[in-house]
């Protein structure tokens, strides 16, 4: 009798073929595979709560078509200069009191510039780290010495998304390249900071583009430890304001495929939860998502409030993850 290896162990299969086959298998098989892997690497009941804080709002020179904060988009957002350390620290303490174990500070910058503002951000990182929370920043492009300084200040992770496939990217952003993003991600991992890198679904891209995004994430070395999956929050005044929402089952397939490809990563069900039913969020958590952003706003757009999230986790018998 000849024995054939199960398809998943085929040596000839390319990464992209494996991603395609994984994503397109029957949903029960996809979910079963994702759950097996999820359970081998994580507590299936635990969900990490993470809170965002926009430390500098609006007037960003980049032209990201989805973003409320770009100067190129005519949105109703009120710009705000870099926040005070005290204000940010108070928000971090409140987030911790609500069960968040990770605090992520975002700035509407194209890139970090050395000087007093960056020094203030470094101090924010130091003070949040002292609260014994994971500290993450997303500040745009970084140079290696800046990544090093963030590491020394106690930064746990840096969020810098690839956003979409290399092919679709230029439909969404023209003011910086995919390569620019890869270089920032390299500087982050070279500094010993954990990479948080994912993308956005629902910007008019195809399923193939989404799978190419996963292939690009899988080609990073090291692969990201944290992968945010955002669904576009359409913002009035942006070119993507009328883009139709992501198909629910396609979202669940993406989450499950991400879980299978990145067994050890925290997969974050990020922007767009307000538009999702409880049942869809539950399916995403069953498919391997194990983190959500809590608090009534993400950076500039609304998000379910903590009470709603608490009730959902309770109904599912799930618990906030401790550090
Ligand atoms: N300026 C920095 C940058 O672009 O890296 C940090 C902030 S930026 C808002 C962080 C990420 O949020 C973006 O890379 C994008 O993936 C996500 N994002 C921004 N606007 C969004 C929207 N309307 N819907 C979904 N995700 C969005
Ligand atoms: C990420 O991928 N999603 C979060 C976090 N990284 C910084 C941000 C979502 C922003 C959604 C749009 C807004 O609120 O402006
Ligand atoms: Fe600026 Fe970031 Fe918004 Fe792009 S996503 S416009 S870089 S704040």
Detail the topology: elements first, then pairings.
Blueprint: H1 15-24, H2 27-41, E1 46-56, H3 85-97, E2 102-107, H4 116-129, E3 134-138, H5 144-153, E4 157-159, H6 169-172, H7 178-190, E5 194-196, E6 199-201, H8 207-218, E7 226-231, H9 248-261, E8 266-269, H10 278-286, E9 291-294, H11 306-316, E10 319-320
Bound molecules: S-adenosylmethionine, 6-(5-methyl-2-OXO-imidazolidin-4-yl)-hexanoic acid and iron/sulfur cluster.
Description of the structure:
- The structure is a single chain.
- 39% of the residues lie in helices and 15% in strands.
- It is of the alpha/beta class.
- β2, α4 and β3 form a beta-alpha-beta unit.
- The radius of gyration is 19 Å and the shape is globular.
- The relative contact order is 0.16.
- It binds S-adenosylmethionine, 6-(5-methyl-2-OXO-imidazolidin-4-yl)-hexanoic acid (DTB) and iron/sulfur cluster.
- 6-(5-methyl-2-OXO-imidazolidin-4-yl)-hexanoic acid (DTB) is lined by residues 52, 68, 104, 106, 138, 159, 161, 198, 228, 230, 233, 270-271, 298-301.
């Amino acid at each position: 009798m000849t024995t054939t290896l199960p398809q998943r162990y085929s040596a000839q299969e390319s990464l992209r073929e494996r991603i395609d086959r994984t994503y397109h298998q029957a949903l029960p098989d996809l979910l079963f595979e994702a759950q097996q892997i999820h359970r081998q690497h994580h507590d299936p009941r635990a969900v990490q709560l993470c809170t965002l804080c926009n430390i500098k709002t609006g007037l960003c020179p980049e032209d990201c078509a989805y973003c409320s904060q770009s100067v190129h988009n005519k949105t109703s957002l009120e710009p705000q200069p870099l926040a005070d350390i005290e204000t940010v620290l108070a928000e971090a303490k409140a987030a911790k009191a609500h069960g968040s174990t990770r605090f992520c500070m975002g700035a509407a910058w194209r890139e970090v510039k050395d000087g007093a503002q960056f020094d203030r951000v470094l101090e924010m990182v130091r003070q949040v780290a002292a609260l014994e929370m994971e500290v993450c920043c997303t500040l745009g492009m970084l140079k290696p010495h800046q990544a090093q300084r963030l590491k020394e200040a106690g930064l746990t992770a840096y969020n810098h998304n690839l956003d979409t496939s290399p092919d679709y990217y230029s439909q969404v952003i023209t003011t910086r390249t995919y390569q620019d993003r890869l270089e920032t991600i390299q500087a982050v991992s070279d500094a010993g900071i954990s990479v948080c890198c994912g993308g956005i679904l629902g910007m008019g891209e195809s399923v193939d583009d989404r799978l190419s995004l996963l292939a690009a994430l899988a080609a990073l070395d090291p692969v990201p430890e944290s992968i945010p999956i955002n669904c576009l929050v359409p913002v009035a005044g942006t070119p993507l304001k009328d883009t139709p929402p992501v198909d629910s089952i396609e979202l669940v397939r993406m989450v499950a495929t991400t879980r299978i490809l990145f067994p050890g990563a925290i997969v974050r069900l990020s922007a767009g939860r307000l538009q999702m039913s409880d049942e869809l969020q539950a399916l995403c958590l069953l498919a391997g998502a194990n983190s959500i952003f809590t608090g009534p706003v993400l950076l500039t757009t609304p998000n379910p409030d903590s009470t709603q999230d608490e009730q959902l986790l309770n109904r599912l018998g799930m618990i906030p993850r401790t550090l």
